[in-house]
TrEMBL record:
UniProt domain Enoyl reductase (ER): residue ranges: 14-328
SMART domains per the UniProt record, alphabetical: PKS_ER (SM00829)
Family annotation (CDD domains): PGDH
Cited InterPro entries: ADH-like_C, ADH_N_2, ER, GroES-like_sf, MDR_fam, NAD(P)-bd_dom_sf
Alphabetically ordered keywords of this record: Oxidoreductase
The species this protein was found in: Longimycelium tulufanense
Protein name (record): NADP-dependent oxidoreductase
Amino acid sequence: GREVRLAHRPTGWPTPETFDLVETEVPAPGPGQVLVRNLVMSVDPYMRGRMHEGPSYVEPFQVGKALEGGAVGEVVASESDALRPGDVVLHALGWRDYALLDPARTAKVDPDAAPLGAYLGVLGMPGLTAYAGLLRIAELREGDVVFVSGAAGAVGSLVGQLAKLKGAARVIGSAGSAEKVKFLVEELGFDTAFNYKDGPVHEQLRKAAPDGIDVYFDNVGGEHLEAAIGALRTFGRVAACGMISMYNAVEPPPGPRNLQNIVRNRLTVRGFIVGDHDDLQEQFLREVGGWLREGKITFRETVVEGLENAADAFLGMMRGQNIGKMVVKLADR
Ligand code: NDP
């Protein structure tokens, strides 16, 4: 087997040298353990945060140790009554060919109900993030005008579709290429979308929503956040989900210059972390799973082949090379 280790803690953008691909021995499960052969793994923006030292809402990665993250794999050996060889499980030990696990740290998934990557995307952590952020944090109401940044990514692409299904009057998305803008409007049903690289965000947003917005789902921070604060109407709400434009910054970037609007327009700006909203998991799977089966929600993934390309997949995702969820395929079932 092989695993990808953190070679050093990056300052600014990580590079291929930040990662080490290492040959390892395939371990045998001890009493109560299972050995899982990983089939598909996730690369997510939060992994950049775990490359820093110091306390956060998840443990930092350790230099010289394998990275971690969501993965789906097949049990190949079991010393536990809880799982049998052939079972397919979701777990948190990605970035390696083989994972040794306590069954309590896995969740069985149905490999025939959805493509395996969906458990890392639309039906997984990013899906719940979209669901909790839009419905609970931003308190979406019928008739709202909704703006979402990072709209063609794993979280954003579900946010836009959910907003439409839940009665938003208008859904506006921003993303970083013409191809993504087309995907938002033609495949996901956004009312309108723009490429934030085409001109100042506040100008493009004003054109897309001349009467302002009620909800901003922030995946990006920076210029997008300032533009949204400038466009929010009275009692508008921001779900602060992520600020990917800042994750590789060496110095803290300047903040929005228009915070006065928060007072003037009685805005709510609320940050959240998906892990605090597990209580919505069942409702989320019922509702979003149902819409998926009915074809009312679609999803895309960008698949990179091979653990040896996982670091490139992560860096590519941070640069916007993905449409929908970025996943790495490690093996066939
Ligand atoms: P995505 O699938 O959206 O991939 C990241 C995307 O970010 C890229 O495709 C790129 O698209 C965009 N991007 C990168 N740099 C910039 C930039 N400078 N300005 C604007 N866009 C940029 O990732 P996820 O859907 O997994 O995550 C989206 C956001 O949600 C992230 O901020 C993440 O940290 C956050 N998140 C938060 C969670 C929580 O619990 N609060 C849980 C999960 C995710 P483009 O081509 O459009 O630039």
